[in-house]
């Protein structure tokens, strides 16, 4: 692939974004239905879809574990390790603090299963497996408070001091419970969005079924929070000043993820249940951004027996899907966080294993490899904006 030549599809994308970017935020249709059957996925180089590309090696005096996720802003965020026990505060490309308060003490947590960082107030909130919201001040980390909570959140975002949103399973007494030979299987009939002020939970509305536990459901936007919920289709709402507005529904048509089939196997005294999904499908509305009457969001698609993390650029007239590549590297772009139009992705590990020897190395690829070589396996930050946005 010639990385110096702009492809026809990239020109079409740029034209679409430029045309739609000229409008105001009020042009977004109410209750917009985006029909995206993902029949075609165009492969595009990062340089063709992005601008303001930065590659920043994280500076640290100690090794940083493998990273699971991020929360915060583009230059001030907290990353957790893959065991959800250790948290790293990264600011302006440098490790400035670490929280590892695992234990049974009064100010310690066992495991923070969900978390959210509010840079404007330097407050870090996490849901502990013990059933409480832990709050810590940052720089340096210092315990502030804890609040018991009787729901199990599977996503959360801090809006302000002691102001949070959750998507959560209903209280345990509302769950239907079936006893099986392998233990207790909780069958959840519904899920809900809750507001929390540090003391009181308020149910905002219910969903048809829970979201994926690992899905980043909430995204901060200039005028509030965007919420991507499964109802059962992926539906995008805006929450601002206590008001909820439905923005769009993602209709994947025949590409909608089907109900999984159970495959039960017995291995000795153990009964194993595997969930099998057959065929092509698409799911998700991750890291959404609204620009006038343009919606950019990421999704995961199985097409022709291959999984892909893709970005969709949707307008009221059309939807285009792109697998974003970095020339010379093996993996596609897989976003960890978006903040005020800036996408952030952490790259970590052995730099030699990232190189695709069968492809010409792009300028961005060269920058990433050089940054990784001198960073002792600590993460490298890749950040960019979409062109014309």
What is the top-level CATH class? Mainly Beta
Q: Architecture, according to CATH?
A: 6 Propeller
Tally of helical runs: 4
Number of self-contained structural domains = 1
Walk across the major sheet and give the strand order.
1-21-20-19-18
Percentage of residues assigned to helices? under 10%
Sheet of most strands:
5 strands, mixed
Alpha carbon gap, first and last residue: 26 Å
Q: The CATH topology is what?
A: Neuraminidase
What's the mean pLDDT score? 83
Shape: globular
- List unreliable stretches of 5+ residues: 1-8, 19-26, 172-188
Strand content: over 45%
Number of strands: 30
Look at the helices and sheets and give the structural class: mainly beta
Rg over CA atoms: 21 Å
Topology:
Elements: H1 8-21, E1 32-35, E2 42-45, H2 46-49, E3 50-57, E4 67-73, E5 76-81, E6 87-91, E7 94-99, E8 112-118, E9 123-128, E10 132-137, E11 142-148, E12 152-160, E13 163-169, E14 176-180, E15 183-187, E16 191-196, E17 201-207, E18 218-221, E19 224-230, E20 234-240, E21 243-251, E22 261-267, E23 270-276, E24 281-291, E25 294-303, E26 306-314, E27 319-325, E28 337-339, E29 342-347, H3 351-354, H4 363-373, E30 380-386
Parallel strand pairs: 1-21, 2-27
Antiparallel strand pairs: 3-30, 4-5, 5-6, 6-7, 8-9, 9-10, 10-11, 12-13, 13-16, 14-15, 16-17, 18-19, 19-20, 20-21, 22-23, 24-25, 25-26, 26-27, 28-29, 29-30
């Amino acid at each position: 692939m010639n990385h110096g030549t702009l492809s026809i599809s990239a020109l079409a994308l740029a034209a679409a974004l430029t045309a739609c970017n000229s409008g105001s935020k009020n042009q977004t249709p109410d209750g917009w239905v985006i029909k995206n059957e993902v029949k075609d996925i165009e492969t595009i180089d990062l340089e063709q879809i992005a601008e303001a590309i930065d590659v920043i090696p994280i500076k640290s005096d100690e090794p940083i574990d493998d990273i699971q996720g991020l929360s915060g802003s583009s230059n001030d965020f907290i990353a957790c390790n893959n065991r959800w026990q250790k948290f790293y505060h990264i600011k302006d490309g440098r490790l400035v603090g670490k929280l590892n308060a695992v234990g049974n003490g009064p100010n310690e947590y066992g495991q923070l299963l969900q978390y959210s960082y509010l840079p404007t107030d330097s407050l870090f909130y996490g849901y502990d497996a013990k059933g409480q919201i832990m709050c810590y001040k940052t720089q340096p980390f210092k315990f502030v408070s804890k609040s018991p909570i009787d729901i199990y959140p599977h996503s959360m975002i801090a809006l302000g001091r002691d102001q949070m949103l959750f998507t959560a399973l209903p209280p345990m007494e509302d769950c239907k419970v079936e006893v099986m030979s392998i233990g207790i299987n909780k069958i959840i009939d519904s899920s809900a969005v809750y507001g929390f002020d540090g003391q009181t939970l308020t149910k905002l509305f219910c969903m048809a079924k829970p979201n994926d536990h690992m899905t980043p459901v909430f995204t901060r936007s200039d005028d509030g929070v965007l919420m991507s919920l499964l109802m059962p289709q992926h539906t995008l709402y805006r929450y601002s000043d206590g008001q909820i507005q439905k923005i769009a529904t993602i209709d994947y048509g025949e590409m909608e993820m089907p109900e999984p089939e159970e495959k039960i196997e017995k291995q000795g005294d153990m009964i194993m249940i595997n969930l099998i999904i057959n065929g092509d499908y698409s799911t998700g509305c991750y890291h959404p951004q609204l620009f006038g009457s343009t919606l950019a969001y990421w999704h995961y698609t199985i097409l022709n027996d291959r999984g892909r993390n893709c970005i969709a650029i949707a307008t009221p007239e059309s939807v285009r899907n792109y697998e974003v590549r970095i020339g010379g590297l093996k993996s596609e772009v897989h976003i960890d966080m978006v903040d005020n139009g800036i996408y952030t992705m952490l790259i970590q590990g052995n730099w030699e294993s990232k190189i695709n020897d069968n492809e010409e190395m792009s300028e961005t690829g060269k920058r990433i490899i050089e940054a990784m070589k001198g960073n002792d396996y600590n993460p490298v930050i890749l950040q960019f904006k979409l062109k014309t946005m």
